[in-house]
Amino acid sequence: MVSFVESSAGTRRTLLYNELKLAEGKALFLGAFNYWKEDGELDFEDKLRRLRDLTVLNERVHKHTIHFSLNFHPGDRITDKEMRRIAGEFLRQIDFGDQPALVYRHLDAGHPHAHVVTVKVRPDGSGIENDKRSPRYMTRVCAELERRHNLTPALAAPVILNPFIAGRLEYGKTPTKTGISGVLDRVLDEFAYTSIEELNAVLSKSNVLADRGSKQGLMYRDRGLYYRMTDERGYKVGAPIKASAFPRRPTLDYLEKKFVANQLTKQQHIVRVRTWIDWSLYDDSLASLDDWKEALLRDKIHVVTLRTPVPRRHRNAPELPAVRTPYDGHGFYYIDYTYNTVYRDTDLGPNYTAAAILHRSGLDATLQSLALGRQLTLIPKDLSLLQKPDPDPAQKLGVLLKISPQQDHLEAIREAEQQELHPARGQRLQF
Fold this sequence. Notes:
The chain is an alpha+beta fold. It has a five-stranded antiparallel β-sheet, with helices on both faces. The chain has a three-stranded antiparallel β-sheet with strand order 6-7-8. Helices cover 41% and strands 15% of the residues. The longest helix is centred in the middle third of the chain and has 29 residues, at 252-280. The two termini are 44 Å apart. The model is unreliable at 161-166, 308-329 and 423-431 (pLDDT under 50).
């Protein structure tokens, strides 16, 4: 048994994620704990209202909504009743036994698993601390539940990954050709992409790059294609390997046939992606670009920003700052893991581009204000650009996306400081 936990400020959004699964027939509602109505009498507003009645009692607790997933071995035969009981025991072990909680059994994976939605504000307005939600503590709780209910131990189970986290190759630890070949076998047939850039959006999550080289180079002119590893920052590492050297020969000719075949699949599911992006922007508590990406990730939509492929840094060259979302003008790519489709932001329409997302969320104004207030570090050229009364929109967007990881870091520090300064989260606010 393996557990994962995510915190969020979006109670409605977290609940909607599970309720949509319920409506699609991909989940079952196993019941509620500490609600005032019977399970069969609860509608969506009843479920939401009970949780929100507590979150408003302590406004200092920013990410107040907790979303657990409990994952069991594929061979474990667990009834709905047993799964609900295990979820209840799990909550009691981590000090959530008296909290209102909703339990759903999801049916869209190869192993039994439950999702539990609750909040970390108690009826007296105090907050529930993070200590018993640490991976180490939850692992101990899961081990105890395994023994009590005769479940397959996690160590004996195949690796059950958090569904939103992909495994990455590490240069020097995995044979280059073997590692890349394994990633290609998993990605090429399972995802619907219609360009090299969209394919690279998926491959980037495993530190792999499909590389055609410079548009002015011979390789590009001759329709050549290499695959290679990258490091965590997107820099090329190791030797490139020709596409024709892999067993399935995923050359440019091969990919272009895939591009055509994938068009229909993408069009069938494009409305879903637009809808979830719209929902994610209804939350007025989004504090950073990372917050927005985490919100979409809970809906199985991953946002990727590609960088221009560059050669490996020379050992004597100065170290460049490591950022998770380097920007090269491409904008966002959306990977929908429900149907394994990939969309460039412009494919979805003008309301879904990187510039539109920053504007719709209000983060463009926040970032600019922080930058001009010297709370973020900018090179003089970028600072001068933002100080102009009418800067070039594309250049301004590039600067804002480039500095957004700094704001993400500031928000993380702010959250940690609040935890340290208000360890009890505890006193009900006085009005």
